[in-house]
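A reminder from the course coordinator: this example appears on the midterm review sheet, so study it carefully.

Given structure:
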């Protein structure tokens, strides 16, 4: 606030003027500057503490986003069945997700739920119907297909196998398929491998687009998980139906740091995998804040270890996920 004096304010001197008399004690000089600075510090500290104390209350106002987010979050919470739910059948997955308040699930291939390409049409229809009748969305299928191999015959086989998996996703009612890069073979250049992965994804993006199935590239693999390399792959693919599955790797902080790496792919994030949220070495709250900034409305999927008390663990995960967004 700007204060304008109509007259030049009187100079008060280094300390207040006081009348003295032979009988009165000599006034003690006080450093007003030190007192003012200390008083300002205490006032500022008190205000800061008061503001921090208000944050939970601000976050708790129904219908309003917390103060540190730009808008009310629209992202949803789900589960990756690797590895917490790897031994669960579909009924158990749905039951536990409902009990823990999870909205969706990504079914990992090769696990006990057995949603695989060998299912008959009738069996696929049954899987679709079971999820449609529950309040848990089958948001995706998690494959282990990758496209870095220098062997061109094997590459064609992997692409063909992914097409079959895309058809499976369509038939069971999933919205996308997760694939991954996994390595940079030493016998070819990095640039050639990244370009090959990108071209493969473009081909699969076309195929999936016709069926309404998104292709989600997991940020995965030694060196291929580095976000500048993922950005290169996305640039080569250049397809509206091909995006990134952010994987919450510690390498997200490498190079020029988290924000730089996030910005490389922020407009291509289709889904998110999240490790245990108590891991303090990873900026999970910042991740959720940045996702909010880019209007992310997809699924954040818990990819956490197995437990003998899984629903309890899932409930804790959900509470911390909400708290990081200021929603608790």
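Designed residues:
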């Amino acid at each position: 606030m700007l204060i304008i004096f109509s007259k030049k304010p009187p100079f008060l001197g280094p300390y207040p003027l006081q009348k003295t008399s032979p009988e009165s004690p000599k006034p003690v000089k006080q450093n007003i500057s030190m007192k003012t600075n200390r008083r300002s510090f205490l006032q500022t500290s008190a205000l800061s503490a008061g503001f921090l104390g208000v944050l939970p209350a601000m976050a708790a106002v129904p219908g309003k986003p917390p103060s540190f987010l730009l808008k009310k979050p629209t992202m949803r919470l789900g589960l990756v069945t690797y590895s917490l739910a790897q031994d669960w059948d579909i009924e158990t997955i749905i039951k536990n997700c409902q009990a823990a308040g999870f909205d969706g699930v990504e079914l990992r291939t090769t696990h006990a739920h057995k949603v695989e390409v060998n299912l008959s049409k009738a069996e696929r229809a049954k899987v679709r119907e079971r999820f449609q009748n529950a309040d848990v969305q089958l948001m995706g299928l998690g494959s282990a297909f990758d496209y870095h191999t220098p062997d061109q015959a094997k590459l064609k086989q992997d692409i063909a196998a992914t097409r079959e998996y895309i058809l499976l996703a369509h038939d069971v009612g999933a919205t996308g398929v997760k694939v991954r890069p996994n390595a940079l073979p030493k016998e070819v250049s990095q640039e050639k491998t990244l370009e090959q992965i990108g071209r493969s994804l473009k081909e699969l993006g076309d195929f999936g687009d016709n069926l309404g199935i998104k292709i989600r590239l997991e940020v995965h693999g030694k060196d291929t998980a580095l976000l500048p390399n993922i950005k290169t792959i996305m640039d080569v693919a250049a397809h509206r139906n091909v995006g990134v599955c952010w994987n919450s790797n510690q390498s997200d902080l490498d190079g020029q740091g988290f924000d730089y790496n996030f910005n490389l792919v922020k407009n291509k994030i289709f889904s998110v995998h999240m490790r245990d949220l108590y891991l303090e070495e990873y900026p999970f709250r910042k991740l959720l804040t940045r996702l909010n900034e880019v209007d992310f409305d997809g699924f954040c999927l818990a990819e956490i270890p197995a437990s003998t008390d899984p629903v309890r663990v899932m409930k804790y995960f959900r509470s911390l996920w909400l708290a990081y967004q200021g929603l608790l």
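The mean pLDDT is 86. Residues 62 and 327 are 9 Å apart (CA to CA).
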